[in-house]
Design goal:
Structural class: alpha+beta
Strand content: 15-25%
Oligomer: single chain
Largest sheet: 7 strands, mixed
Helix content: 25-40%
Strand order of the largest sheet: 1-2-3-5-4-6-7
Radius of gyration: 31 Å
Length: 641
């Protein structure tokens, strides 16, 4: 079977896959989870005072270009209160269909269902006279399924749109509801309807960006700025990227990929030329730019295939040439692939890993595959570090997001920001990543051995036990020192205090200092748990508690521990003691740090310092301890940050 036929077959497979998933999404949405319909009905009843059974609320009907033309021909412009239609698939919609919106009365609304694939086309066709105010959908397992192969691709998602002449600042997005719409007057769903109504009057602020993804996939509606919305994929990628843990390196520098690299070639030929353009210089490889240029010039001549250079170039993919390229430290290859029915994807390769094939050749000729050769400025970024970053979840999302924004720029992804720790830190990161990869490979190998050769189970068990023992060899003191040695020592789950009661300047015991530590413990219990380390200054300098214990606790650690336990009992409460564990860690004979581990409270019971009407909590965005008066708070349902 020829390569071209295989390529066409793969395209057919992609198309069939898209249509099968999209049709399944449409059927499930329309038949089981059409939250747009329920929002429409309840909105009409509550805010437009239209009775539920009124003929003023039309039934949901299918529509295509022919139906739209007949509707426009036989209906007075501006005469309809409500449009209620769905497009069966992406082929059902054409620009001519957008004429139906002219039939809406000045305050009319349209509830339209579409395949997500045509979202941008619909948006472009109706603006600036009509605007999308809300995007609806149904849950597809993003919050619970780890294997991405079993999560519906966003390009296949079937969605509902609320459209009117109102240009809202925020777009209401409810694309992952977990259950049917609850029409009880006091339900969260009806509260969401109220918020949606407020958004139509531009009285709603955007949902905090760092919380939006978690809210969305948990089944809650969010509000997203209209000016930032490109399409649903861009929205999800943006929110997911913002939800990722950000680096704690406070002095981390960032530069765009464009600044730390240059485009050295834009074809497979350029990438393949590399194998011939390096020469040995001592122990290092040196790039021969003149040879690179010579190959380019020669390849454009009519007699290229008869030239000596071509004969040299042809067997580029031999094991010896690939082995030679493993020493390359300043080039990488980025392949970008996009079919009509598949989301954009990126493949990041070291030159020694880059492969070319007849199939890729056809993809390249069809304009579906783009290949870019980048030369890296290794004074600012190590190639191995950059490869790891671009292949990471964060790097992949950045590449995808950039591809949506600068469509006119051929390599728009070069605008992405690369976090750039110091070179020595980059080396440490790469070394650690290589070690974890080796560890994973070793574990996988041992798993395969157990299953394929049970007779060697005893030896495999010995190896695994040895690995576990070595991993657990890190001492408590080493754990504390790791915190001391890292940048960004305090986090949402780690806080440092120099003393428990001692004012280091006055040399006196002060209750407000004690209270500060106990508030941290309460905040950890009320939120996600955490560790308080006493004996380290705010900047992470090891101070130890030895001086405080010697002067005020008879130089006995047991006396202090008894005092500490009594404070927890009296000021926090007996019922929480099982959630608090504390022990002294000896860093050295003259430096002991108290480690207080706190486990998150389960259920709706809060922890209150001194039993007062204060709900102590940590604001994870300011890292401050705050108190909230419970007199009016008690009227609301208890919730924790």
């Amino acid at each position: 079977m020829s390569i071209s036929k295989i390529q066409e077959a793969y395209k057919d497979v992609d198309k069939v896959r898209y249509e099968a998933l999209s049709n399944s999404s449409r059927d499930e949405y329309l038949n089981d989870y059409d939250n747009l319909e329920l929002v429409l009905y309840n909105y009409c009843v509550k805010y437009l005072k239209i009775p539920l059974m009124s003929k003023r609320i039309p039934r949901l009907e299918p529509i295509d270009e022919e139906v739209a033309e007949n509707l426009v021909k036989n209906t007075l412009s501006g005469s309809l209160e409500i449009l209620h239609y769905y497009f069966w698939d992406w082929k059902s919609y054409t620009t001519a269909c957008s004429k139906i919106f002219d039939l809406l009365a000045p305050n009319g609304i349209a509830a339209i269902r579409i395949p997500n694939l045509i979202f941008e086309k619909v948006k472009a066709d109706i603006e600036p006279e009509f605007y999308i105010n809300g995007i609806f959908g149904y849950e597809d397992g993003r919050d619970s399924i780890e294997d991405e192969d079993y999560i519906l691709p966003l390009s296949c998602k079937y969605i509902g749109l609320w459209i009117s002449r109102i240009k809202t600042e925020q777009i209401f997005v409810w694309t992952e509801p977990l259950f049917d719409f609850d029409e009880d007057a006091e339900s969260d769903d009806m509260m969401a309807l109220d918020l949606f109504h407020q958004s139509l009057s531009n009285k709603i602020q955007r949902t905090p960006l760092d919380k939006s993804y978690k809210h969305l996939i948990a089944g809650n509606p969010i509000f997203y700025p209209r000016e930032d919305l490109i399409n649903l994929e861009h929205l999800y990628y943006t929110l997911e990227f913002e939800s990722l843990a950000k680096s704690e390196l406070s002095n981390n520098n960032e530069k765009s990929l464009e600044v730390v690299s240059e485009v050295y070639g834009d074809s497979p030929f350029d990438c393949r030329c590399l194998s011939l353009c390096f020469k040995k210089k001592g122990e290092e490889l040196e790039f021969d730019n003149s040879k690179f240029t010579e190959l380019h010039v020669a390849s454009e001549k009519d007699d290229w295939f008869e030239s000596e250079l071509y004969k040299e170039f042809k067997p580029y993919d031999t094991p010896s040439l690939r082995e030679k390229l493993t020493q390359v430290k300043d080039f990488l290859v980025i392949e970008t692939l996009q079919y009509d029915f598949s989301p954009i994807s990126f493949t990041i390769n070291h030159p020694s890993d880059f492969r070319w094939s007849e199939y890729k050749k056809w993809q390249f000729m069809e304009g579906e595959l783009k290949v870019c050769l980048l030369k890296i400025n290794t004074d600012e970024v190590l190639l191995d570090y950059l490869l790891h970053f671009l292949k990471s979840k964060s790097g992949d999302l950045k590449l995808k997001l950039a591809s949506f924004i600068s469509l006119e720029k051929e390599y728009s992804w070069r605008d992405i920001a690369i976090p750039l720790p110091e070179i020595k830190d980059q080396k440490t990161i790469v070394s650690s990543l290589i070690k974890t990869s080796r560890l994973n490979d070793k574990i996988k190998s041992l798993e395969d051995t157990l299953l394929s050769s049970p007779i060697n189970a005893i030896q495999t068990e010995i190896e695994l036990t040895d690995m576990v023992n070595r991993l657990e060899m890190i001492s408590d003191a080493e754990r504390i020192l790791q915190i001391v040695n890292r940048r960004g020592k305090e986090t949402k789950t780690v806080e440092l205090k120099e003393t428990f009661q001692l004012d280091v300047k006055k040399k006196t015991i002060e209750k407000y200092i004690e209270t500060s530590s106990l508030k941290v413990i309460c905040s950890f219990l009320n939120t996600e748990g955490g560790t308080l380390l006493i004996g380290l200054s705010d900047d992470g300098e090891l101070k130890g508690m030895n001086h405080e214990i010697a002067k005020h606790h008879k130089d006995k650690f047991d006396v202090f521990k008894l005092t500490f336990a009594q404070k927890l009992d009296k000021r926090i409460g007996k019922e929480f003691l099982d959630l608090i564990d504390f022990e002294f860690i000896a860093i050295n004979p003259n430096c002991h740090v108290l480690e207080v581990k706190c486990i998150k409270i389960e259920g709706d019971n809060g922890c209150y310092l001194d039993g007062s009407d204060f709900y102590i909590r940590r604001n994870p965005y300011t890292e401050k301890i705050e108190g909230k008066d419970l007199v009016d708070y008690s009227r609301k349902r208890f919730s924790k940050l």
